[in-house]
Amino acid sequence: MMDAQVPSDWRDQRIAYVEHGRFGRIGAIVIDSLTLGPALGGCRMWRYERFDDALLDARRLSRGMSYKNAMAGLPLGGGKSVLLRPEQEADRAGYFDAFAEAVDALGGRYLAAEDVGTAVTDMQRVRRKTPYVFGVPSAEGLAGGDPSPWTARGVFSSISAVAARIGKPLGTLSVAVQGLGHVGMSLCQLLFDEGVELMVADINPAALTHAERHFRAKAMPAVSIHAADVDIFAPCALGAVLNENTIPQIRARAVVGAANNQLATDRDGSLLMERGILYAPDYIVNAGGVINVAGEYLNETPAMVGRKVEEIGERLLHVLDRAEEMRIPANVAADLMAREILLSRAQSAQIAAG
Ligand code: NAI
Q: 11: pLDDT confidence band, cut at 50, 70 and 90?
């Protein structure tokens, strides 16, 4: 990939390639920042048209992880890896063996975990060849395993903080949840327990029926849930749901959800601000999962992870305050605050090194 194609502040990123004996170059690991600690970020397996597209994705996502980990208060840097999806699933194990070798060769500078297209079982395979992989079942009493319930708790903490900010007690709040998967369904349970009125949408009818039965939720069509007449819209399904088509239709006062990359473009953060809709930056809100994965690396107990996840709402309010003070979109404020953390740590390290 020509360096001219990428932003100049990506040029310090370190890239290691994943080579497979038979299939050649099948993936890449990108380390964006080691300023706060080893670079933690998931391994994505996806079908890309060209290898360069995969690499570009990994570079962009690894920067996102540096910001996310910094803003989650973790002693971890940012990284990400991508693997080209094999043509035949039969090759899958071999792909993860090659990946494990590449991870191990980095000697702990990159810490892997699952992501879109990879599963706990894949990471268990990786663990056979390297200790630098997390998101695998851990010993009794220690953090680990499925991150989704923790992600849901972080979203709940964020929604509670935003509800207080807009002066709505939880018992009088209405929330539209888009996507009733691992995170969305757990979130519905937490909100229902506090008396929140729920509207829900999913393309899976069984999930809708479950939410209707167990949380007295009102089902809405998937195409119009973003326009529900509620206090808070919680995207918990796909990325890019906040775009020039949906934003003018949003009736909620705030958007607070788990989905990654909710803004289709940075400009959409400004569009939300212009409409007076409070946007809770996705990577602040959905950090519960990575806090749990980090807890596994740091040998924490679930109670320690829980305390950190509870702090997400408070951290979100700091970001919203900063955005308001500076009259900038909240997504821009979050990136700015993350860069400040990284810069201040890099400067202290320089001073300490004399
Ligand atoms: P999931 O795959 O378990 O659930 C997604 C749900 O969205 C499914 O029920 C699916 O049927 C539904 N869906 C798909 N298209 C839809 C549409 N057009 N309208 C309505 N519903 C639709 O995923 P999970 O784990 O619950 O994650 C949800 C989001 O949160 C994703 O964007 C993910 O990247 C993000 N996230 C998840 C974390 C986790 O710990 N699982 C951590 C951080 C972010």
A: confident
Cα–Cα distance for residue pair 254/234, rounded to 1 Å: 9
Count other C-beta atoms under 10 Å from residue 352's C-beta: 7
Using pLDDT thresholds of 50, 70 and 90, give the confidence band for residue 129. very high
* Average confidence (pLDDT) over 100-114: 98
Maximum CA extent, the chain: 63
In 3D, which of 113, 75, 73, 63 has the Cα closest to residue 309?
Answer: 73
Q: Whose CA is nearest to atom 2 of ligand 1?
A: 181
Pocket test for ligand 1, best of 65, 80, 238, 245 (most atoms within 8 A of CB): 238
Nearest-5° Cα angle at 216, 192 to 249: 85
Q: How far apart are CA 229 and CA 333, in angstroms?
A: 28
Ligand 1 atom 18, closest CA: 222
Protein residue with its CA nearest to atom 39 in ligand 1 = 148
For the stretch 191-200, contacts whose Cβ atoms lie closer than 8 Å and that sit 24 or more positions apart, written own/partner, are 191/156, 191/159, 191/215, 192/216, 192/217, 194/160, 194/170, 195/170, 195/171, 196/170, 196/171, 197/173, 197/230, 198/174, 199/174, 199/175, 199/225, 199/228, 199/230, 200/176, 200/225
Decide if 173 contacts 231 (C-beta within 8 A). yes
Under DSSP, is residue 295 helix (H, G, I), strand (E, B) or coil?
A: helix
Give this prediction's pTM: 0.95
Q: What is the pLDDT of residues 52-91, one digit of tens each?
A: 999 999 999 999 999 999 999 999 999 999 999 988 777 8
Q: Is 80 a catalytic residue?
A: yes
* pLDDT tens sequence across 135-182: 988 888 999 888 999 999 999 999 999 999 999 999 999 999 999 999
Helix, strand and coil content of the chain, in percent to the nearest 5, comes to 50, 15, 35
